Amino acid sequence: MDEPERRENVVAEEHGRESLGRALGMIPSGIFVVTAARDSVRAAYVGSWIQQAAFEPPSITIAMNQQRPLLSLLEPGRGIGVNILGRRQAPLYARFERGFSLNEDPFVGVEIDTAVTGAPLLREAFAYLDCRIRTMVDAGDHRLILAEVLAGAVRQSGEPMTYTRQSGFTY
What pTM was estimated for this model as a whole? Predict the structure, then answer.
């Protein structure tokens, strides 16, 4: 085997699915409690695929699994809350990480506020963003949401909770 052929084989091995999964898993994520309300139904889930998308107007993207019950409450023009968790907020994370059906109110016993859109905002969260959905796009097993940020604030000092995954093909 000559040298160029050996290099091609090494590159082919580096580009395998397992290697790709490890590389995707290195993309750091924050930990967020995403919230919405519609009529008498209130919902929340722990999300991690959220990024700032624009300066003006300030906007974010949220990649939400198509199986999330909260997704059925959303459409362009509706409000959505992004509650940013801090490093020391493991108990708050654990409370919302288990997930909730639309028949359960995830905010029982939790202090919440609202800002502009009416989306529930956790008083205990490290920071929050109150957003209005501009558009939603199918992205395979996830739905990509572009939302304009209408209000937000840091409520506690410290650092946000972040993590990386072992594989970019699982949570």
Answer: 0.88
CA distances to 6, 11, 64, 143, 160 from 67, rounded to whole Å, are 44, 36, 8, 10, 26
pLDDT at 2: 59
Three-class SS state of 89: coil
> Is the pLDDT assigned to residue 9 strictly greater than 70?
no
Query: Which long-range CB contacts under 8 A does 57-62 form with residues at least 24 apart?
Result: 57/148, 57/149, 58/148, 58/149, 59/134, 59/146, 59/147, 59/148, 59/149, 60/129, 60/131, 60/146, 60/147, 60/149, 61/144, 61/145, 61/146, 61/147, 62/34, 62/144, 62/145, 62/147
Sequence-distant (≥ 6) Cβ neighbours of residue 83 within 8 angstroms: 32, 33, 34, 35, 121, 122, 125, 126, 127, 128
